[in-house]
Structure formats: C-alpha cells, structure tokens
Amino acid sequence: MPNDLLSLIGNTPMVRSRVLNTNPNVAVYFKLEGQNPGGSVKDRAALNMIQTGLATGNIDQNTKLIEATSGNTGIALAMIARSYGLDIELVMPESATKERVQTMRAYGAKVTLTPADIGIEGARDYVMDKVASDGYVMLDQFGNAANWQAHYQSTGPEIWADTQGQITHFVSAMGTTGTITGTATYLKEQNPAITIVGAQPAEGSKIPGIRKWSPDYVPAIFDPSKVDQTQDVSASEAQQMAKRMAQEEGIFCGISSGGAATIALRLAQTLEKGCIVSIVCDRGDRYLSSDIF
Questions:
Q1: Mean per-residue pLDDT for 144-151?
Q2: Catalytic residue among 42, 130, 188, 226
Q3: Catalytic residue chosen out of the listed positions 40, 154, 172, 256
Q4: Which domains does the chain have, with CATH numbers?
C-alpha cells in the first residue's frame, strides 16, 4: 500500500564518505536530510510543531498562522500546513533564494519578504508585531519545544541505530538549534561520551542556515549544555565544501551542510579512531539561483 506523504518524513539514509575523508581509522557519515519529502531536515520539526499544536488545541483550521523563516522551515510548514488544511503566512528576508520563495508559494502559502539588511531578526520582529496586533498565531520554531523534541524522537534514534551505537561525534549546523539540541539529548542519554559539535559562521561570514545569534535573539529552545564544542567555519569554506560534496561524493547539498561537513572532515583528521555523523540538512537545488554552483 502507498504511504501517506507525511509518513515519509524521517528515516533518511546515511552514507559513508568515500573520498573526502582521508583518515582510514575514522568513519565519516553524512545523513541525507534532503531525502525528506519537503527536501530538508526541517520537515521533522514542522510536522511535530503542527501536529502538537492541533493535538493541544492551540491551532485549528480557523487559526491565522504566521512564522519567520530563512527558508527550509517555511517550505516544510507550507507543505504540511496545506496537508492539514491550514493557512499560513511565511515571513523571510528578501535576500532568500527565489527557489525557496517560489516553493512556498507553490504549496499555497502567503510569503512576505522583509528587508535584507535586517536579516532573519527583522523577519522575527515583523512576526511578533503581527501576533501582538492582528490576532495571528506563530508556531515559534525558535521557542517551541516540539522543534527539538522532533529530533529527540526521530533523528537521534535513527543515527544511534544506523551506527549500531558506534557513533563518537555528532556535527550539526546551528540555526534554530532544534536539530542539535534534540539529537544531542537523545545521543547523550545513550552514551554521555559522544561529542556534540556545533557549526557556527566565522566572524564576518554569512552562511544561510547557520547563525551566531545576537544575545536578544538566541533561540529559547537552545540548551548550551548539550553542545560540547562549537567550531567556526567561513562562508568560503562552506561554499567550497558544498561544491566538493557534489563533485567528489555525489552529494548535492546546501551551504550550511557544506559548513558542517567542513568541520566533520577537519575533526576526522585529528582523531586516532572514531565514527562521525554530520547532518546534510537540505539539497543543493535550493541554491541554483545563487552564484555558489
């Protein structure tokens, strides 16, 4: 029997680096979240936030939903909201690639673009104003526990099972921080010795999907105690690695995935042995209108 579309979210494949990792004593795996039906890791959080909101009665078919997004969460929410008959307005900086805007609109969402110079913080401020004054309800990916819980319930268990409990290091980009917080929480419960590594943009670098938040905008769901170390990656490193992932590993991914992969492969060179899992959070076709490829 064919599966319901939403049942296809999760259980994404994980592949071992064949070329880029040159340390024979360390296994580096890439978890391919672009294989989700909405094309990114954000499908998991979006599904859990909407299902939790419906189950608790916080939202229903009459709710005016609104959410700030840099792209992938918005696409996931547009797809899943439509599946549940919900209307949603998605707010994002006008610097977002046109593929993201067009995809959200294709699913039937209203898309509002805010000035590029105020970034995602400005989009979040716009949403807060609409919630305060116009009766909108936001899912609040930055403060909604259902975001990180999605990864506690699915991403972490999948990685643990697929590595047969052999994982020693987990690497993820840090945006809303839901992926790293939820996955780390599960993995640390299985083995507290697993090292959790967060990817952050180097000073002066802007990388879609990776943030170094100003103090007023740090996501409420972020638990710094769950992250053992953060490592900086530059925009040029992330972009070059995204190209190499496609050309050398056959993995067509976005820039934040290139940033996480840079750190995972850098880390592999420092270990005598280990098993590293790095999140490939989306697909490269979301960036074709940029100059990356």
A1: 98
A2: 42
A3: 256
A4: 5-36+154-287 (3.40.50.1100), 42-138 (3.40.50.1100)
